[in-house]
Amino acid sequence: MSVKNLISHSLPYLTPSDTVEKALEVLEDYKLKELPIVADDSYVGMVTEQTLLELDQSLKLSNIHRSTDTRPALNANAHPFEAISVAHQTNVQLIPIVEDKQNYLGCVTIESLLGFIAENSSIDKPGGVLVLEILPLNYSMFEIARICENDDAVILGMQCHTTENGTLEVTLKLNLTILDSIVASFERYDYTVKEVYGNNSSNTEDIINNYKLLMNYINM
């Protein structure tokens, strides 16, 4: 899927002939913090409420050179993940979508991107979440999947990022809501289970501690 499929065609845009006063009114009506400026169907730039509040309300947008300083637009063929990255980096509510030669098609909203994430990452499906902390050299998706499969757990979604201390934090969305058994399995293979979110049949922390006591007893 490309961002073109997530465009919201109901959102307005501004033109260079609009005044600052009109732009502020449109922003207020739609409860937005920024809007694109479009001239002859071509994307010009983005104007923000913060910029407009500093200007004479009778000014036309064509006289605001700062409006073109930041142009967080994406090509219509870009993947939604790229739009999420742009939204995070620029802290905008709307991302203008263009075709070749800056032809303006519309905007993608943060809400539509969140909807895409929910529909395509199994967030809205029943199941529990397990967070593992792993050294980069020890990371093996094959082994993680094997441990899950041995406990009859299916990985519905997975995210991985590097923490400040250099370890990998691997978040697993599983089809199980009771995670006691799989937590014990990961601990048995020396994985650090950092966080557990699910309807456990008993306290997960107690299970982990009891398992460690048992293993210490066996190794005596």
Please provide a brief summary of the model.
With 220 residues, the protein is α+β, with helices and mostly antiparallel strands. The protein has seven helices and nine strands, in the order H-E-E-H-E-H-E-E-H-E-H-E-E-H-E-H. It is elongated.
Properties at a glance:
single chain, CBS-domain, four-stranded antiparallel β-sheet, alpha+beta, 2 domains, Alpha-Beta Plaits, 220 residues, elongated
Overall description:
With 220 residues, the protein is of the alpha+beta class. It folds into two domains: 115 residues, CBS-domain (Roll), CATH 3.10.580; 94 residues, Alpha-Beta Plaits (2-Layer Sandwich). The chain is 33% helix and 25% strand. The protein has seven helices and nine strands. Strands 7-8-6-9 form a four-stranded antiparallel sheet, with helices on one face. The protein has a three-stranded mixed sheet with strand order 3-4-5. α3 links the parallel β3 and β4. The termini are far apart.
Number of domains: 2
Strand content: 25-35%
The rough form would be described as elongated
> From the 3D coordinates, which CATH architecture of the largest domain would you assign?
Roll
What's the CATH class of the largest domain, please? Alpha Beta
Oligomer: single chain
Number of helices: 7
Gyration radius (Cα, Å) is 25 Å
Q: Would you identify the regions where 5 or more consecutive residues have pLDDT less than 50?
A: none
Instruction: Going across the biggest sheet, name each strand in turn.
Output: 7-8-6-9
Q: What is the number of E strands?
A: 9
Main β-sheet: number of strands, strand sense, barrel status?
Answer: 4 strands, antiparallel
The CATH homologous superfamily of the largest domain is termed CBS-domain
Could you name the CATH topology of the largest domain?
Answer: CBS-domain
- Reading the helices and strands in chain order gives HEEHEHEEHEHEEHEH
Q: Could you say which structural class the secondary elements and strand pairing correspond to?
A: alpha+beta
Terminal CA distance reads 56 Å
- Mean pLDDT, to the nearest integer, reads 86
